Amino acid sequence: MNEEQLHLSADVLSSGVGLITAAGYINNEGGQAIADAAGGLMERGCGTLLIDLEGTRIINSIGVSILLEIMERLLEEKGRLAFCSLTPTIAKTFEIMGLVQYATIYPDQRAARADLEGHASG
Amino acid sequence: MEVVLHLPVVPNVELVAAKAVETLGGALGMPQTRVEASCVAIVEACLNAMEHGGGEVVVRLSGENEGGRPRLVIEVEDHGKGFDPNRTPRRTVVQVRGCASKRGWGLTLIRELMDEVQISSQPGQTLVRMSKYVEGGP
């Protein structure tokens, strides 16, 4: 579990969907890095954000609380937040912390993009 | 089978405890999903201990056999001012929506992710003892 360093990328997909991939430990620094990437994508016009956590095996509640802040900001702007490729424990953590009430969870990036890019362009 | 760690308060040291859980849980034959749940729980317990304990955190891990069911037992001890565990209700997302601070989920996660949790606290010593059975319940 050598995951101290969070590896992150951000891309604009079609139809106003922003994709963030994050692999590593989502602690306060990791959560903030994701929040910064999310802010950048929103400034570039992305109203829907997909966060792919394939490669992330461990998180903490401080990092997830920052994801809650991203969710609130998106909801305020009538946007949409989605996650994919969660381990069962991360999915359970998101369920306990209420993220799944406001975000959509997909099994993998392919399923997420098929739905989100289709919706956004439709 | 026992592991004892004395953790200094340095960034990301909670991952050392998580690594120990991963190793011991694997040695006990615990499925990966249950190991990962235990890792999140020990990370939360260590973060709480470091934030509120104000000094070295002691972690003890052991494999035990409770009524014929093997389990991983985790203890996290700090020496802070203590708190009343009965006055830490379960956190919900409704409570934190719209609030500037969305923190305070540690004990809620620990209680939800582990099979058994006992917390004893008094000034000078707080001990969180939690266990996860190697296999899920019947």
Compact summary:
The complex is a heterodimer of chains A (122) and B (138). Chain A has helices spanning 28-43, 61-76, 88-96, 99-102, 109-121; strands spanning 7-12, 17-23, 48-52, 80-84, 104-106. Chain A is of the alpha/beta class.
**CATH fold type of chain B:** Heat Shock Protein 90
Provide the residue-averaged pLDDT of chain B.
Answer: 92
The domain tally of chain A reads 1
Poorly predicted regions of chain A are none
The CATH class of chain B is identified as Alpha Beta
Beta-strand content estimate of chain A:
15-25%
Widest sheet of chain A: strand order? 1-2-3-4-5
- The succession of helices and strands of chain B, N to C, reads EHHEEHHEE
Q: Biggest interface: chains and residue counts?
A: A-B, 28 and 30 residues
Structural class of chain B: alpha+beta
Query: Number of helical segments of chain A?
Result: 5
The helix content of chain B is: 25-40%
Shape of chain B: globular
What is the highest CATH level, the class of chain A?
Answer: Alpha Beta
Largest sheet of chain B: 5 strands, antiparallel
Order of helices and strands of chain A: EEHEHEHHEH
Helices and strands of chain A: which structural class?
alpha/beta
Question: What is the overall number of helices of chain B?
Answer: 4
The CATH architecture category of chain B equals 2-Layer Sandwich
**Could you give a short account of the major beta sheet of chain A?**
5 strands, mixed
Distance between the termini of chain B: 25 Å
Question: Mind explaining what this structure looks like?
Answer:
The complex is a heterodimer of chains A (122) and B (138). Chain A is an alpha/beta fold and 122 residues long. Chain A is built from five helices and five strands, in the order ββαβαβααβα. Chain A has one domain: STAS domain (Transcription Regulator spoIIAA, 2-Layer Sandwich), CATH 3.30.750. Chain A is 48% helix and 21% strand. In chain A, a hairpin with a 4-residue loop joins strand 1 and strand 2. In chain A, helix 1 runs parallel beside helix 2. Chain A starts with 6 loop residues before the first strand and ends with a helix. Chain B is an alpha+beta fold and 138 residues long. The longest helix of chain B has 22 residues. In chain B, helix 1 runs antiparallel to helix 2 and helix 2 packs antiparallel against helix 4. The mean pLDDT of chain B is 92. Chain B has a five-stranded antiparallel beta sheet with strand order 1-2-3-5-4, with helices on one face. In chain B, 36% of the residues lie in helices and 30% in strands. At the A-B interface, helix 2, helix 3 and helix 4 of A face helix 1, helix 2, helix 3 and helix 4 of B.
